[in-house]
Amino acid sequence: MRSVRARAAAGAMVVVAVALIGAGIAVLLVLRANLTDQAGLQAEVAAREVAGQLALDVPYGRLDLPDVEEHPVQVTDEDGRPVAASKDLEAVSGTGTDRVTPNASPTPGSSGSGSGSGSDDDGSGDRHGGDDHRDDDANTPARGEVSTDDPDFTNGTATVDGDTADYRFAAVSATTSTGVTLTVRAGAPLATEQKAVGSVRAAMLIGLPVMLLVVAVVTWLVTRRALRPVEGIRAEMAAITASEDLSRRVPEPGSRDEIARLARTTNETLTALEASVGRQRRFVADASHELRSPIASLRTQLEVGEAHPELLDLRGAVADTVRLQALAADLLLLARLDAGERPGNTPVDLGALVHEEVLQRTGDRIPVAMSVPESGHLEVTGSRGQLARVIGNLLDNAERHAESSVAVSVFRDHGSVVVAVTDDGAGVPEPERERVFERFVRLDDARSRDEGGAGLGLPIARDVAHRHGGTLTATRAAEGGARFALRLPGTESSPSGD
Question: What is the reported pTM?
Answer without folding.
Answer: 0.51
